[in-house]
Here is the input.
Amino acid sequence: MNFQEQMNGYKQQVEAYLEQLPMSGAPEQLKEAMRYSLLSNGKRLRGILTLSSCEMAGGSAEEALPFAAALEMIHAYSLIHDDLPAMDNDTLRRGKPTNHVVYGEALAILAGDGLLTHAFEVMAQSAHPRAFDALREIVKAAGIGGMLAGQTLDVTMQGTEPNMDLVRDIHQGKTAALLTAPVTAGLILAGASPMQTESGRRYGYHLGMAFQIVDDLLDLEGDPELMGKTLGKDEEEGKLTWPACVGVEWARQDAEDHIRHAKSALTVFGTRAAFLQSLADFSLHRAQ
Ligand code: GRG
Here is the structure.
Protein backbone atom coordinates (compact mmCIF):
# COMPACT_ATOMS: atom_id res chain seq x y z
CA MET A 1 0.00 0.00 0.00
CA ASN A 2 1.43 3.40 -0.88
CA PHE A 3 1.32 6.46 1.39
CA GLN A 4 -1.81 7.99 -0.15
CA GLU A 5 -3.73 4.71 0.12
CA GLN A 6 -2.72 4.40 3.78
CA MET A 7 -3.81 8.01 4.44
CA ASN A 8 -7.18 7.35 2.82
CA GLY A 9 -7.62 4.12 4.80
CA TYR A 10 -7.00 5.84 8.16
CA LYS A 11 -9.19 8.79 7.16
CA GLN A 12 -12.06 6.49 6.27
CA GLN A 13 -11.74 4.65 9.59
CA VAL A 14 -11.88 7.94 11.53
CA GLU A 15 -14.79 9.29 9.50
CA ALA A 16 -16.83 6.09 9.78
CA TYR A 17 -16.39 6.17 13.56
CA LEU A 18 -17.35 9.86 13.80
CA GLU A 19 -20.38 9.31 11.57
CA GLN A 20 -21.85 6.61 13.83
CA LEU A 21 -21.33 8.43 17.16
CA PRO A 22 -24.79 8.42 18.75
CA MET A 23 -24.35 11.70 20.72
CA SER A 24 -27.09 10.37 22.99
CA GLY A 25 -29.08 12.86 25.00
CA ALA A 26 -28.31 15.87 22.80
CA PRO A 27 -31.33 17.89 21.65
CA GLU A 28 -31.75 17.58 17.87
CA GLN A 29 -30.60 21.17 17.10
CA LEU A 30 -27.44 20.81 19.18
CA LYS A 31 -26.64 17.46 17.58
CA GLU A 32 -27.15 18.93 14.11
CA ALA A 33 -24.83 21.89 14.82
CA MET A 34 -22.18 19.56 16.30
CA ARG A 35 -22.35 17.17 13.35
CA TYR A 36 -22.31 20.04 10.83
CA SER A 37 -18.76 20.99 11.82
CA LEU A 38 -17.50 17.59 12.93
CA LEU A 39 -18.43 15.82 9.69
CA SER A 40 -17.40 18.58 7.29
CA ASN A 41 -14.48 18.12 4.97
CA GLY A 42 -11.33 18.15 7.18
CA LYS A 43 -8.03 16.43 6.54
CA ARG A 44 -8.47 14.34 9.77
CA LEU A 45 -4.79 14.69 10.54
CA ARG A 46 -5.23 14.40 14.31
CA GLY A 47 -7.23 11.20 13.94
CA ILE A 48 -4.82 9.77 11.38
CA LEU A 49 -1.85 10.56 13.65
CA THR A 50 -3.51 8.74 16.56
CA LEU A 51 -4.20 5.54 14.61
CA SER A 52 -0.87 5.43 12.80
CA SER A 53 1.20 6.14 15.93
CA CYS A 54 -0.59 3.35 17.78
CA GLU A 55 0.14 0.93 14.91
CA MET A 56 3.76 2.10 14.64
CA ALA A 57 4.35 0.87 18.21
CA GLY A 58 2.59 -2.46 17.62
CA GLY A 59 -0.93 -1.55 18.79
CA SER A 60 -4.16 -1.80 16.78
CA ALA A 61 -5.84 1.20 15.15
CA GLU A 62 -9.14 -0.14 16.42
CA GLU A 63 -8.27 0.39 20.10
CA ALA A 64 -7.17 3.96 19.36
CA LEU A 65 -10.39 4.96 17.52
CA PRO A 66 -12.22 6.60 20.47
CA PHE A 67 -9.14 8.74 21.11
CA ALA A 68 -8.75 9.63 17.43
CA ALA A 69 -12.41 10.67 17.39
CA ALA A 70 -12.01 12.67 20.61
CA LEU A 71 -9.08 14.59 19.12
CA GLU A 72 -11.11 15.38 16.00
CA MET A 73 -13.98 16.59 18.22
CA ILE A 74 -11.66 18.83 20.25
CA HIS A 75 -10.17 20.17 17.02
CA ALA A 76 -13.65 20.85 15.56
CA TYR A 77 -14.66 22.70 18.76
CA SER A 78 -11.54 24.88 18.55
CA LEU A 79 -12.34 25.78 14.93
CA ILE A 80 -15.97 26.67 15.71
CA HIS A 81 -14.92 28.95 18.58
CA ASP A 82 -11.98 30.39 16.65
CA ASP A 83 -14.36 31.43 13.84
CA LEU A 84 -16.78 33.28 16.16
CA PRO A 85 -17.19 37.06 15.74
CA ALA A 86 -15.49 37.57 19.13
CA MET A 87 -12.40 35.72 17.87
CA ASP A 88 -11.37 35.59 14.20
CA ASN A 89 -14.81 36.43 12.83
CA ASP A 90 -14.62 34.07 9.85
CA THR A 91 -17.53 33.14 7.63
CA LEU A 92 -15.96 30.26 5.69
CA ARG A 93 -14.38 27.03 7.01
CA ARG A 94 -13.66 23.76 5.22
CA GLY A 95 -15.31 25.28 2.17
CA LYS A 96 -18.64 25.86 3.94
CA PRO A 97 -20.25 28.70 5.94
CA THR A 98 -18.97 28.67 9.52
CA ASN A 99 -21.06 27.20 12.31
CA HIS A 100 -22.31 30.52 13.71
CA VAL A 101 -23.29 31.72 10.22
CA VAL A 102 -25.58 28.71 9.86
CA TYR A 103 -26.84 28.19 13.43
CA GLY A 104 -26.28 31.56 15.13
CA GLU A 105 -23.72 32.45 17.76
CA ALA A 106 -25.46 30.92 20.76
CA LEU A 107 -25.82 27.48 19.19
CA ALA A 108 -22.29 27.65 17.75
CA ILE A 109 -20.86 28.25 21.23
CA LEU A 110 -22.92 25.35 22.55
CA ALA A 111 -21.89 23.08 19.64
CA GLY A 112 -18.22 23.83 20.49
CA ASP A 113 -18.84 23.14 24.18
CA GLY A 114 -20.74 19.99 23.22
CA LEU A 115 -17.90 18.66 21.07
CA LEU A 116 -15.32 19.37 23.77
CA THR A 117 -17.23 17.67 26.55
CA HIS A 118 -18.39 14.80 24.36
CA ALA A 119 -14.76 14.10 23.49
CA PHE A 120 -14.11 13.37 27.16
CA GLU A 121 -17.26 11.28 27.46
CA VAL A 122 -16.15 9.09 24.53
CA MET A 123 -12.64 8.61 25.97
CA ALA A 124 -13.99 7.92 29.44
CA GLN A 125 -16.10 5.08 28.01
CA SER A 126 -12.99 3.27 26.79
CA ALA A 127 -12.10 0.15 28.76
CA HIS A 128 -8.52 0.24 27.50
CA PRO A 129 -6.08 -0.37 30.39
CA ARG A 130 -4.05 2.74 29.47
CA ALA A 131 -7.05 4.94 28.58
CA PHE A 132 -6.44 7.28 31.49
CA ASP A 133 -2.80 7.90 30.54
CA ALA A 134 -3.81 8.66 26.95
CA LEU A 135 -6.62 10.91 28.15
CA ARG A 136 -4.18 12.83 30.37
CA GLU A 137 -2.00 13.63 27.33
CA ILE A 138 -5.02 14.92 25.44
CA VAL A 139 -6.42 17.01 28.34
CA LYS A 140 -3.06 18.69 28.86
CA ALA A 141 -2.65 19.50 25.18
CA ALA A 142 -6.13 20.97 24.80
CA GLY A 143 -6.13 22.78 28.13
CA ILE A 144 -4.92 25.96 29.75
CA GLY A 145 -1.20 25.22 29.33
CA GLY A 146 -1.62 23.97 25.75
CA MET A 147 -4.00 25.00 22.98
CA LEU A 148 -5.80 27.55 25.17
CA ALA A 149 -2.49 29.15 26.19
CA GLY A 150 -1.50 29.53 22.53
CA GLN A 151 -4.87 30.91 21.55
CA THR A 152 -4.83 33.39 24.45
CA LEU A 153 -1.43 34.74 23.37
CA ASP A 154 -2.59 34.83 19.76
CA VAL A 155 -5.66 36.90 20.62
CA THR A 156 -4.12 39.21 23.22
CA MET A 157 -0.80 39.94 21.49
CA GLN A 158 -2.27 40.62 18.04
CA GLY A 159 -0.97 43.92 16.62
CA THR A 160 2.24 43.93 18.69
CA GLU A 161 5.75 43.84 17.19
CA PRO A 162 6.55 40.33 15.79
CA ASN A 163 8.90 38.50 18.13
CA MET A 164 10.31 35.03 17.50
CA ASP A 165 10.06 33.74 21.10
CA LEU A 166 6.47 34.85 21.37
CA VAL A 167 5.46 33.40 17.99
CA ARG A 168 7.16 30.13 18.92
CA ASP A 169 5.03 29.98 22.09
CA ILE A 170 1.87 30.79 20.13
CA HIS A 171 2.57 28.10 17.52
CA GLN A 172 3.52 25.51 20.10
CA GLY A 173 0.31 26.10 22.06
CA LYS A 174 -2.33 26.69 19.45
CA THR A 175 -1.13 24.13 16.90
CA ALA A 176 1.75 21.84 17.96
CA ALA A 177 0.08 20.77 21.24
CA LEU A 178 -2.92 19.26 19.45
CA LEU A 179 -0.72 17.59 16.83
CA THR A 180 1.59 16.10 19.49
CA ALA A 181 -1.13 14.61 21.72
CA PRO A 182 -2.42 12.23 19.00
CA VAL A 183 1.08 10.81 18.64
CA THR A 184 1.85 10.41 22.35
CA ALA A 185 -1.65 9.13 23.13
CA GLY A 186 -1.45 6.59 20.27
CA LEU A 187 1.95 5.40 21.46
CA ILE A 188 0.80 5.13 25.08
CA LEU A 189 -2.23 3.06 24.03
CA ALA A 190 0.10 0.70 22.16
CA GLY A 191 2.22 0.24 25.30
CA ALA A 192 5.27 2.07 23.94
CA SER A 193 8.21 2.65 26.29
CA PRO A 194 8.69 6.11 27.86
CA MET A 195 11.70 6.62 25.57
CA GLN A 196 9.62 5.82 22.48
CA THR A 197 6.83 8.12 23.69
CA GLU A 198 9.31 10.98 24.13
CA SER A 199 10.55 10.40 20.56
CA GLY A 200 6.94 10.70 19.43
CA ARG A 201 6.62 13.93 21.43
CA ARG A 202 9.61 15.43 19.60
CA TYR A 203 8.11 14.34 16.27
CA GLY A 204 4.77 15.96 17.17
CA TYR A 205 6.40 19.21 18.30
CA HIS A 206 8.40 19.64 15.08
CA LEU A 207 5.53 18.50 12.88
CA GLY A 208 3.22 20.99 14.61
CA MET A 209 5.66 23.90 14.34
CA ALA A 210 6.19 23.20 10.64
CA PHE A 211 2.44 22.76 10.13
CA GLN A 212 1.69 26.22 11.55
CA ILE A 213 4.54 27.90 9.62
CA VAL A 214 3.12 26.36 6.43
CA ASP A 215 -0.34 27.57 7.50
CA ASP A 216 1.10 31.10 7.89
CA LEU A 217 2.67 30.84 4.41
CA LEU A 218 -0.54 29.51 2.87
CA ASP A 219 -2.38 32.52 4.33
CA LEU A 220 -0.02 34.70 2.30
CA GLU A 221 0.21 32.74 -0.91
CA GLY A 222 -2.23 29.80 -0.85
CA ASP A 223 -5.31 29.11 -2.96
CA PRO A 224 -8.50 30.13 -1.05
CA GLU A 225 -10.52 27.56 -3.03
CA LEU A 226 -8.29 24.69 -1.88
CA MET A 227 -7.93 26.03 1.68
CA GLY A 228 -11.71 26.43 1.98
CA LYS A 229 -11.39 29.66 3.97
CA THR A 230 -10.68 33.36 3.53
CA LEU A 231 -6.94 34.02 3.19
CA GLY A 232 -4.76 37.11 3.63
CA LYS A 233 -6.26 38.06 6.98
CA ASP A 234 -3.13 37.51 9.11
CA GLU A 235 -1.21 40.42 7.61
CA GLU A 236 -4.28 42.68 7.52
CA GLU A 237 -5.01 42.08 11.20
CA GLY A 238 -1.45 42.21 12.51
CA LYS A 239 -1.36 38.51 13.49
CA LEU A 240 1.93 37.27 14.89
CA THR A 241 3.16 34.80 12.29
CA TRP A 242 6.53 33.23 11.51
CA PRO A 243 6.88 34.94 8.08
CA ALA A 244 6.17 38.28 9.85
CA CYS A 245 9.21 37.56 12.07
CA VAL A 246 11.72 36.16 9.59
CA GLY A 247 10.31 36.73 6.08
CA VAL A 248 8.85 34.23 3.63
CA GLU A 249 12.11 32.61 2.47
CA TRP A 250 13.44 31.93 5.97
CA ALA A 251 10.04 30.76 7.12
CA ARG A 252 10.02 28.14 4.37
CA GLN A 253 13.53 27.08 5.35
CA ASP A 254 12.56 26.82 9.03
CA ALA A 255 9.54 24.67 8.15
CA GLU A 256 11.85 22.32 6.21
CA ASP A 257 14.23 22.14 9.20
CA HIS A 258 11.37 21.26 11.55
CA ILE A 259 10.27 18.48 9.20
CA ARG A 260 13.81 17.10 9.08
CA HIS A 261 13.91 17.04 12.90
CA ALA A 262 10.45 15.46 13.03
CA LYS A 263 11.50 12.63 10.73
CA SER A 264 14.76 11.93 12.52
CA ALA A 265 12.99 11.83 15.93
CA LEU A 266 11.30 8.60 14.76
CA THR A 267 14.45 6.66 13.80
CA VAL A 268 14.00 4.55 16.99
CA PHE A 269 11.02 2.93 15.26
CA GLY A 270 13.06 1.86 12.22
CA THR A 271 11.07 1.04 9.10
CA ARG A 272 7.76 1.16 11.05
CA ALA A 273 8.16 4.97 11.06
CA ALA A 274 7.86 5.21 7.25
CA PHE A 275 4.21 6.30 7.21
CA LEU A 276 4.61 9.06 9.84
CA GLN A 277 7.78 10.25 8.14
CA SER A 278 5.94 10.52 4.82
CA LEU A 279 3.12 12.33 6.64
CA ALA A 280 5.68 14.93 7.77
CA ASP A 281 6.74 15.51 4.14
CA PHE A 282 3.10 15.69 3.11
CA SER A 283 2.46 18.42 5.72
CA LEU A 284 5.33 20.48 4.34
CA HIS A 285 4.15 20.31 0.75
CA ARG A 286 0.41 20.56 1.40
CA ALA A 287 -1.71 23.10 -0.49
CA GLN A 288 -4.72 22.82 1.84
C1 GRG B 1 -12.38 28.44 24.29
C2 GRG B 1 -13.61 30.39 23.21
C3 GRG B 1 -12.60 29.31 23.12
C4 GRG B 1 -11.93 29.13 21.97
C5 GRG B 1 -10.98 28.10 21.76
C6 GRG B 1 -8.36 27.03 21.30
C7 GRG B 1 -9.09 27.73 20.23
C8 GRG B 1 -10.34 28.44 20.49
C9 GRG B 1 -8.66 27.76 18.99
C10 GRG B 1 -7.40 27.10 18.58
C11 GRG B 1 -7.23 27.36 17.30
C12 GRG B 1 -6.72 27.23 16.02
C13 GRG B 1 -7.68 27.54 14.93
C14 GRG B 1 -5.45 26.87 15.79
C15 GRG B 1 -4.86 26.79 14.49
C16 GRG B 1 -4.50 25.37 14.16
C17 GRG B 1 -4.75 25.02 12.72
C18 GRG B 1 -3.69 25.23 11.74
C19 GRG B 1 -5.94 24.55 12.38
C20 GRG B 1 -6.29 24.01 11.05
O1 GRG B 1 -6.01 22.63 11.09
P1 GRG B 1 -6.17 21.67 9.83
O2 GRG B 1 -5.51 22.30 8.64
O3 GRG B 1 -7.75 21.73 9.63
O4 GRG B 1 -5.75 20.32 10.22
P2 GRG B 1 -8.74 20.65 8.97
O5 GRG B 1 -9.93 21.49 8.53
O6 GRG B 1 -8.08 19.98 7.82
O7 GRG B 1 -9.11 19.71 10.07
Q: What stands out?
A: The first helix runs from residue 3 to 19. The chain has one domain: 3-285. Residues 42-43, 45, 75, 78-79, 81-82, 94, 147-148, 151, 174-175, 212, 215 surround geranylgeranyl diphosphate (CB under 6 Å).
